[in-house]
Amino acid sequence: MKLTKKSHACVRLEKEGRTLVLDPGGFSEPDAAAGADAVLVTHEHPDHFDEGRLRAALEANPAAEIWTLKAVADQLSAAFPGRVHTVGHGDTFTAAGFDVQVHGELHAVIHPDIPRITNVGYLIDGGRVFHPGDALTVPDHPVETLMLPVMAPWNKISEVIDYVREVRPQRAYDIHDALLTDLARPIYDRQIGGLGGTRHLRLTPGDSAEV
Length: 211
Prior knowledge:
The chain is an alpha/beta fold. The chain is built from four helices and 14 strands. A hairpin with a 2-residue loop joins strand 2 and strand 3 (about 20).
């Protein structure tokens, strides 16, 4: 499986000539979802879900489909009947040839005064990749490659380190990093890599790795 990092929280997975894209939001490249056979969206926040870009991707490829939670599906399903699928915790499905399990229900707490929205994570192909969205969800299944949200208004580095320790993946790649400056990256690399207990890796947007 080929994993390509796009900006912020977006990831493209390719296998056997098919492409699955996760969270092509407004902080990612405008063409992040272009050419996708299937798209997974973890929640409705604009850095993960850009309605206009997803509509363009679906219109460009009449065979493309989306799997997401209700808050996002409700904004797209009327325009694309039969192609937008609503999922929640515990669901399993196949998208573009990838086996997917849904884990999690709520977005991480940003502040007690801010109501929590729904958020789901996606476990791909039996644990080869896990993308948690905006939550520190621990799936009940071993994870080979964890897409690790390293910097957000809702987390701090001690929580990120403890999350890596709890999931215990073989490797962790940074996502949710658009707000992290280059000056801070060596600090995050050193602390997560030194304390997380797993291989901590980072891809520049556009770069790929085999997982």
